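Lecture notes, continued. The same structure-token format from the folding unit now serves as the input rather than the output. Read the line below as a description of shape only.
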């Protein structure tokens, strides 16, 4: 597996991480519907579509409010996009996958 956001950012919010008790488990670390996206664990390499992830020490809200910040300021988003090149899954397709998987349950 490739490096996930919590490993790259060293935020400690993965299950069992150093910051889990203080900030809670990061939803990207437990979002199974995007497992293996861009070669990551759960949504670890698609965290920009997951609400309540941590950015610059602050919990980000829903996708619509946080995506512009991710797009413009997140080094991890750029790292994944550059690493995946032609295999990079566009954000609308990731959101559709989240929605479709929720509807099928």
């Amino acid at each position: 597996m490739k490096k996930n956001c919590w490993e790259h950012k060293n935020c400690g919010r993965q299950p069992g991480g150093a910051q889990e008790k203080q900030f809670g488990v990061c939803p990207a670390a437990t979002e199974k519907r995007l497992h293996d996206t861009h070669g990551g664990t759960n949504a670890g390499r698609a965290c920009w579509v997951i609400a309540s992830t941590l950015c610059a020490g602050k919990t980000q809200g829903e996708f619509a409010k946080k995506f512009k910040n991710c797009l413009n300021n997140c080094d991890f988003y750029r790292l994944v996009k550059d690493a995946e090149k032609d295999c990079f899954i566009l954000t609308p397709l990731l959101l559709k996958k989240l929605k479709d998987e929720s509807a099928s349950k």
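Point for the exam: The radius of gyration is 13 Å.
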